[in-house]
Amino acid sequence: MASKIISFILQPFAKPIRYILLKIMKKIRQPDDERPIIATANHILKDIIFPYIFDIFKSDRFRELAEFKKMPTSEHDRIFNELQIAGISLVVFYLRTVEPLMGPDDYNFWRDVDDRLPRELQKILISYGVDGANAKLMRQLIDMRYEEYEKMKAEVLEVNDEENKNFETLSPELKRIVSTVQAIAVGTAHHIKRGKIKEGDPLIKYLVGCLMFLQKQIGKFVRNL
Question: Helices (DSSP H) in 128-171: which residue ranges?
Fold first, then answer.
């Protein structure tokens, strides 16, 4: 009973405590110590991406725009997976965008975290009861979606440069971030609706807003760790 009470009391502080421990681990880590990298990848997945994506998935507005009522229940898991992949893809894009702007130590650290994320996702899914084959498939889907969104990002960036006057005032880094978010939003909406999207589809705009918020969370976490 006492342990349960202590656990309940400490629960609101668990996330801040884990974050402080991450900062300490990162600061004192040795070159051959992978524990801070694994812990950081886990924190990104479990404490940032998963809770936020689940909130999106459960929101009435998202379900309205994704036209849940027109889909069989069996499609819901697939849609949730697409949202998770969108969130993880955004993190991977962000880390690969900002790595060159960091010092050598941070560059190597975040490069290793980037490399670790898909493997940790696979392990986490298995720990949640997902069978090994499906967990591996999710990891493979991330690679597939990354390649897909990478090509779309280049196209979106080109269109923005040519047609969006407000885009001209942005820094090169912010241009890449905005184009990445837009590309992932378009691609995710396309997969959620199985290609049945139209120009100006409100689901795309909704996902852009959600991903921009997640982008800010990730950026803040990376800068402050």
Answer: 132-163
pLDDT of residue 159: 82
Q: Whole-angstrom Cα distance, residue 166 to residue 163?
A: 9
So what's the pLDDT on residue 206? 95
Q: How far is CA 110 from CA 46, 83, 127, in A?
A: 17, 23, 24
Rounded Cα gap, residues 74 and 17, in angstroms: 38
Give residue 55's pLDDT: 93
Using CA atoms, how far apart are residues 195 and 222, in angstroms rounded to an integer?
A: 34
Residue 111, SS3 per DSSP? helix
Q: What amino acid occupies position 165?
A: K
Cβ neighbour number for residue 106 with a 10 Å cutoff: 16
What's the pLDDT score for residue 100?
Answer: 64
Domain segments of the chain: what residues? 14-224
**Given the structure tokens 């196209």, which residue do they identify?**
155
Cβ count within 10 A of residue 171? 8
Give the single-character DSSP code of 174: H
Residue type, 83: L
pLDDT less than 70: residues of the chain: 1-15, 99-101
The amino acid sitting at 142 is I
DSSP class per residue in 12-49: HHHHHHHHHHHHHHHHH--TT--HHHHHHHHHIIIIII
69 secondary structure, DSSP code? G
CB contact at 8 A, 97 and 173:
yes
